[in-house]
Amino acid sequence: MQLTEMSSQQMTRELAQLEEQRRLIKDRVRGVRIGANPGMFLCGPPGTGKSFTVLEACRETEQSPFLYYRGHITSIGLFELIAQHPDATIVLDDVHSILDEPKAQQILLAAYGAPDTGDGARTIRYKRCDHECTIHFRGGLIAISNLELRSGKERQWQLLNAIASRIHVLKFMPSNDQMTAMMFDLASRGWKDSIGKRALDSETCMEIAKFLVEECRQASRQLDLRLLVDKAFPDYWLWSTGETDNHWHQLVRTSLLEMPVRSNGQGVDRIADERAIVKRICSQFSERADRIEAWQAETRCVEYPTGKSERAFYRRKAELDRNTTLNRQIDTDSSVAAGCQTVEPSKPQI
Fold it and tell me: Which pLDDT score, from 0 to 100, does residue 349 have?
């Protein structure tokens, strides 16, 4: 069975199994939030909803403040971050690079260690030049990574094992069917961007999700929520505005292959045909409304059932105007060149 043919019953079953895994992750997050555990490490493939699940659990638990940090951080940066938020739950996302730094590993070992003060804090020390800095950390550390907690270097591997022995380590690896169900579930709710300026209805989003899932299957590409939410939905919206020369199918395929899709030459022919249509319409109609009505009537097809947009019309017209200007300049230069006669130097008489 193809993934795009998932029944509602199977989708419900896959979502239920996925929710079981998410509830376990949330339980571990709550344990860190209320102080039952010093931290946790969550790993798994990108675009599976790891960060979303952790942050959702953090917001559901109000016992202590939490801080979300994503991006590059050094060992001293990690120490200073903990120093600024000694009572908070700190969520570190995509920070696997610091796990290869021995200094950062030592800081994490101390942060994940047993309480060594009367108020339940863990003491973290950092030696800097001529003085030593000390933190009494009462919060928790949640680390999220696409990579597992391991290293090829023996010394670092021992330190990472020591870290793993002090916290809960979880792998979140949904199956393809579970990822498909999650994508369809997201699509069924429609889409709106973070600032609310772009939106798509649920029927359109489901069409996009089914196409993306099938394209990923054919390209042997792992399903990724970011491909759907951050790329495919915006690509469709952009195409729907008439601002693209390519169909949204091509835009999505380009995102999957991470390179321009090889053309069969039809795109060039189509653009030439559209320019010819615009040229003919402009010669027949002078009113803007009449031109656009004629344009949409002549460009109706399966991909564009109501015809191409007004913006597409004026884009092709601008291209024609540029070509006309360029041709006039070439003709002018040719006329000037033809009018200039080369005078051969006369030979001296003997």
Answer: 52
Contacts of 133 (CB under 8 A, 6+ apart): 79, 83, 125, 126, 127
Q: Greater confidence, 86 or 350?
A: 86
Range in 135-139, 151-155, 313-317 the model is least confident about: 151-155
Is the model more confident about 302 or about 68? 68
